[in-house]
């Protein structure tokens, strides 16, 4: 028996061709899920960036899929939106969205999925405390990209934080708490050898 580093590894076939198909299905399916979560959006009258379910989907899928698959999943999502599929928040699509105020956050999703996935591969999603830290790292990555791009668009001033950070902190903390409950609880339901980071002895 083998140990699994992420949830996605649990059902991954051993055969190369089947494993490649499995990975591709996860990446495409995950990208569509992120697109659906983007439609859970609340526009804010004082900010060009709406509150959405995307950040939770991005960092949660990163933890479930691992760094490489999580990163490719979000790249696929971005490509879908850039190509014209209405997967961005509020059903929007096209390159103009990526060049607008939300563009930095969307690009940051890919980096955040990678960071969160990498930490999950190291076992950070097994315990509540480290899961919270992993989710915080993912959110910080998103905000870093998003706020830097906002600074490029509107300049470096207090307005950037007021429209691009402060309105989202409480919601992201709640999402982090949910992830911290679900991810470690899931591993506890698996047999001990499955949740280990090293293969068990036979």
Estimate what percentage of residues fall within beta strands: under 5%
Order of helices and strands: HEEHHHHHHH
Distance between the termini: 7 Å
Shape: globular
Please describe the topology of this protein.
Blueprint: H1 16-38, E1 41-44, E2 47-52, H2 54-65, H3 67-82, H4 95-99, H5 103-121, H6 128-154, H7 158-164, H8 169-188
Helix pairs in contact: 1-2, 1-3, 2-3, 2-5, 2-8, 3-5, 5-6, 6-7, 6-8
Descriptive account of the structure:
The protein is mainly alpha-helical and 202 residues long. The chain has a single domain, classed as Arp2/3 complex 21 kDa subunit ARPC3. The protein is 64% helix and 5% strand. Strands 1-2 form a two-stranded antiparallel sheet.
From the structure above, extract its key features.
Arp2/3 complex 21 kDa subunit ARPC3, mainly alpha, two-stranded antiparallel ribbon, 202 residues
Brief digest:
With 202 residues, the protein is mainly α. It is 64% helix and 5% strand.
